[in-house]
């Protein structure tokens, strides 16, 4: 499975090294934001933002084990 890890949470911009995280539609978010975007039904918007940020900054999704 490929996961886009920006090194920070796309929603709250906090570094992921200091907190628990989860993958939502192939993008790594901090644990709290991952739940919040699901409840607020804004997953698509944040995933799209993360992918466009990654494309602009040359970050590629990495293969990880589930």
Q: How does this model look, in words?
A:
It contains two helices and four strands. It has 66 residues and is of the alpha+beta class. It has one domain (2-63). The protein has a two-stranded antiparallel sheet. The protein has a two-stranded antiparallel sheet with strand order 2-3. A hairpin with a 2-residue loop joins strand 2 (21-24) and strand 3.
Number of strands: 4
* Major sheet description: 2 strands, antiparallel
Distance between the termini: 7 Å
Encode the helix/strand succession as letters. Answer: EEEHHE
User: Strand order within the widest sheet?
Assistant: 1-4
Structural class: alpha+beta
What's the total helix number? 2
| Cα-based radius of gyration, to the nearest Å | 11 Å
What are the segments in which pLDDT stays under 50 over at least 5 consecutive residues?
none
Strand content: 15-25%
Estimated helix fraction: 25-40%
Globular, elongated, flat, extended or rod-shaped: what is the shape?
A: globular
Average pLDDT: 96
Total number of distinct structural domains: 1
Features of the shown structure:
66 residues, two-stranded antiparallel sheet, two-stranded antiparallel ribbon, 2 helices, 4 strands, globular
Summarize the structure.
With 66 residues, this protein is α+β, with helices and mostly antiparallel strands. The protein is 36% helix and 18% strand. The longest helix is centred in the C-terminal third of the chain and has 15 residues, at 43-57.
């Amino acid at each position: 499975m490929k996961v886009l890890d920006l090194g920070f949470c796309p929603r709250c911009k906090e570094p992921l090294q200091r907190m628990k995280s989860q993958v939502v539609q192939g993008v790594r978010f901090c644990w709290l934001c991952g739940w919040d975007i699901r409840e607020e039904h804004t997953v698509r918007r944040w995933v799209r933002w993360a992918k466009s940020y990654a494309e602009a900054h040359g970050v590629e999704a990495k293969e990880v084990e589930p």
